[in-house]
Design goal:
CATH superfamily of the largest domain: Mur-like, catalytic domain
Radius of gyration: 21 Å
Shape: globular
Number of domains: 2
Number of helices: 15
Structural class: alpha/beta
Number of strands: 19
Strand content: 15-25%
Strand order of the largest sheet: 4-3-2-5-1-6-7-8
CATH class of the largest domain: Alpha Beta
Distance between the termini: 15 Å
Length: about 425
C-alpha cells in the first residue's frame, strides 16, 4: 500500500514545476488524446471563492442517497490525493489512481506544451469517471473558472457560483468585478445557473453574463432556521440532534457548522430542484438523509487532540476568516489561535477578522509550502491588536499546538489559516 501511495506522488512530481498556468489548450489536447472522456460525464460545475467544497459535499451525498452513481472532484486534498476523486463519497483506490494517471501521462504529446499537475489529475478524473460510468459528477473548479482545467464541458446540467471575494487575485484580477468575470466563465448558453449571495460589483458582472447567455437563473437566498432543533430520523447515520432549516419549500437538517451553511445548503437545494425539473428522481427523504449525513473535513470541524477539544478550519482568506469568527463568537470564550498562512494570502485582513482582545496567538510555519514567516506575522498581529493575551512563534506545528492545548484551560484552541496546515495536522493524527 505504501508503495502505491508513493507511486501517485512519483507520477505527479515531475509536473509540479509547471505550477499554476491557467488555460484550456493543454487540457483539451490531452482529453482529445484520451478519446474525450469528459463528454461521457453529465456534470454539475461549481465555482466560488468559499463554500464550493461544502456545496459539492451536499450534492454528492444527496444524489448518492437518491440512488445515483455520483462522481465528485474537489481540491485541494487535505491528506491524500485520493480525496480529490470520489464515487459515492468513496475516494479512488490507489490502484485505480495509478492506472488512470499512467494512461494520462502516456497520452501526453512531448511536442506540445506539457500539462500542469492539476491538469494531469483533472484528466485522470474524467477518465476514471467515464470508465466507471457515473450517472452524474459534481465538479469543483480548481481556480477561477473561465480558464480552469475543469471548464471543458459545453452543456453542464447546472452551473453554480457559490460566492465571490478577493482571493487568488494574483491570477484572477485585483478587483471583485475582475474575479467575478473569471468565475462567470463557467456559465454556458441556455444552461441553468444557481447563484449565491454576491457583492454588488460581482452581482452586476454575473447578471450581465447570465443575460448574454440566456441562462435560466436561480438567485439563492440563505435558508431560514426553523424554530427548534429536532431529532434526526433513526434511519440516518447521525443520531445527534441537528438544527433544521427551510429553503425552497423543503425542510432539512444541517450537519455542517457555521452560518455560511445556510447559504451553501440552500444552493445545494436549489440545484437539486433544478435537476428534478429536468427529470432526475430525488425524493425529499433523500434530501433529508443526504443533508444529515454530509461530511466535509477541515471546515469548522471539531476534533480531539491531547485529550482536549480542538476546532479546526481552513480560514485561508478574509471571507472564510469572518465566517469562522462568527462561529467562535457563539462559544462565548476567548480563543487560542494556532495559525500558519501561505505567503500569498491577505494576512492583515485575516488577522483583523479573527483576533479579539484577550485572545492568544500561536504562530507556526506551513510545512512544505511557501509559508509566511511567523515572526513577520507576529509583528503584524501586534499592529492589529495590542490587547491580545500573548503572541508567540514556534518552529513547527506540533510545538505550537501543544503549547496552545496545554498552557491554559480558559481559552478554546482553534487551528486555522491554511488548508495545507490542516492537512499536515490530520496526517499527524493518523
Amino acid at each position: 500500500m505504501t508503495n502505491l501511495i508513493s507511486a501517485i506522488d512519483r507520477l505527479l512530481a515531475p509536473f509540479h514545476q509547471f505550477g499554476v498556468n491557467l488555460g484550456l489548450s493543454r487540457i483539451q489536447t490531452l482529453l482529445s488524446a484520451l478519446d474525450a472522456p469528459h463528454l461521457a460525464v453529465p456534470i454539475i460545475h461549481v465555482a466560488g471563492t468559499n463554500g464550493k467544497g461544502s456545496v459539492c459535499a451536499y450534492l454528492s451525498t444527496i444524489l448518492t442517497e437518491a440512488g445515483y452513481r455520483v462522481g465528485r472532484y474537489t481540491s485541494p486534498h487535505l491528506v491524500d490525493w485520493n480525496e480529490r476523486i470520489c464515487i459515492n463519497d468513496e475516494p479512488i483506490s490507489n490502484e485505480s489512481a495509478v492506472t488512470a494517471l499512467d494512461r494520462v501521462i502516456a497520452a501526453i504529446d512531448p511536442t506540445t506544451p506539457i500539462p500542469t499537475q492539476f491538469e494531469i489529475v483533472t484528466a485522470a478524473m474524467w477518465l476514471y469517471f467515464a470508465q466507471s460510468q457515473v450517472d452524474i459528477a459534481v465538479i469543483e473548479v480548481g481556480l477561477g473558472g473561465r480558464l480552469d482545467a475543469t471548464n471543458v464541458c459545453d452543456k453542464p446540467l447546472a452551473t453554480i457560483i457559490v460566492s465571490i471575494d478577493l482571493d487568488h487575485w494574483q491570477q484572477l484580477g485585483d478587483t471583485i468585478a475582475k474575479i467575478a468575470g473569471e468565475k462567470a466563465g463557467i456559465l454556458k448558453p441556455n444552461c441553468p445557473a444557481i447563484i449565491g449571495t454576491l457583492p454588488p460589483d460581482a452581482n452586476a458582472v454575473v447578471a450581465e453574463r447570465i443575460a448574454a447567455l440566456n441562462c435560466p437563473a436561480t438567485w439563492v437566498k440563505p435558508a431560514i432556521k426553523t424554530p427548534k432543533s429536532r431529532s434526526t430520523p433513526e434511519t440516518l447515520l447521525s443520531s445527534d440532534s441537528l438544527p433544521w432549516v427551510e429553503s425552497g419549500g423543503i425542510e432539512y437538517p444541517l450537519a455542517l457548522l457555521g452560518e455560511m451553511q445556510l447559504t451553501n445548503s440552500a444552493i445545494a437545494i436549489a440545484t437539486i430542484q433544478t435537476l428534478r425539473q429536468s427529470g432526475w428522481k430525488i425524493s425529499d427523504q433523500a434530501i433529508v438523509t443526504g443533508m444529515a449525513n454530509t461530511q466535509w473535513r477541515g471546515r469548522i470541524q471539531w476534533t480531539t487532540w491531547l485529550d482536549r477539544k480542538l476546532l479546526i478550519d481552513g480560514a485561508h482568506n478574509p471571507a472564510a476568516a469572518i465566517a469562522l469568527r462568527q462561529y467562535v463568537d457563539t462559544l462565548n470564550m476567548p480563543i487560542s489561535w494556532v495559525m500558519g498562512m501561505l505567503s500569498t494570502k491577505s494576512h492583515l485582513e485575516i488577522f483583523q477578522a479573527l483576533l479579539r482582545p484577550g485572545d492568544r496567538l500561536y504562530l507556526v510555519p506551513v510545512p512544505d509550502h511557501s509559508s509566511a514567516d511567523p515572526a513577520e506575522l507576529a509583528a503584524m498581529a501586534r499592529s492589529v491588536s495590542d490587547s491580545l493575551d500573548s503572541i508567540d512563534t514556534y518552529a513547527n506545528l506540533t510545538t505550537g499546538l501543544t503549547a496552545a492545548m496545554t498552557t491554559t484551560a480558559t481559552h478554546q484552541p482553534v487551528l486555522c489559516g491554511s488548508l495545507y496546515l490542516l492537512g499536515y495536522f490530520l496526517k499527524l493524527e493518523q
